[in-house]
What we know:
Elements: E1 9-12, E2 16-20, E3 27-32, H1 38-51, E4 67-73, E5 76-82, H2 96-101, H3 109-126, E6 138-142, E7 148-152, H4 169-182, H5 188-200
Antiparallel strand pairs: 1-2, 2-3, 3-5, 4-5, 6-7
Helix pairs in contact: 3-4
Amino acid sequence: MVQLNDSLYIAEGVARKCYHHPENTNLCIKIGKPEIAKDHLYKEINYYSKIQKKDTSQFSYPFYSKFRGEISTNLGTGFVYDLIKDEPSQKISLTLRHYLEMEDSPISDATIINELKRLKQQMIEHKVFVGDLRARNICVKILKDTSIQLIVIDGLGHRDFFPLADWFHHYAKKKVERRFIKSNLHSLEAQRILLKRLRAIGAKYI
């Protein structure tokens, strides 16, 4: 059984808390909060099972954090994922939300816009969908050459009863484009306005 404690804590969202894996610095462990229904926690896990056969060598780059399985911990069942880290520093990559809220971000808006377009195109091309597409669920990984990659770390999946988007490019494109607009990620200005509004109303998870 893996032992987790507060010293390993990284961050949390609405449904789960995230910890460093104490035995592997390249992995993290997500623990469902007690008040969250078990079936909700497994929605994303079930989706990972659905897409695990995709040939990631065909991707422009791995644009979502891989699920590595379940383990037993002192805090309950843990879900193991790749931990996204910047290559030069080996520190945990900051989220897109962090960079958008910085006064003097080292990453230009033009660069972020181009990478959002690339992320969107990969989702469409490879039919991988993110139900909870938020700036806080996207890490900005800095590479050795100082370029960046946007990597989704949470919220994968969809709830379509008739999953036409899983089968047809046309529906996949429409679905992803709608999600970017609904999440205000079609425009950095719209996203920053959303973040400010959430701050103003005291939202717990931004």
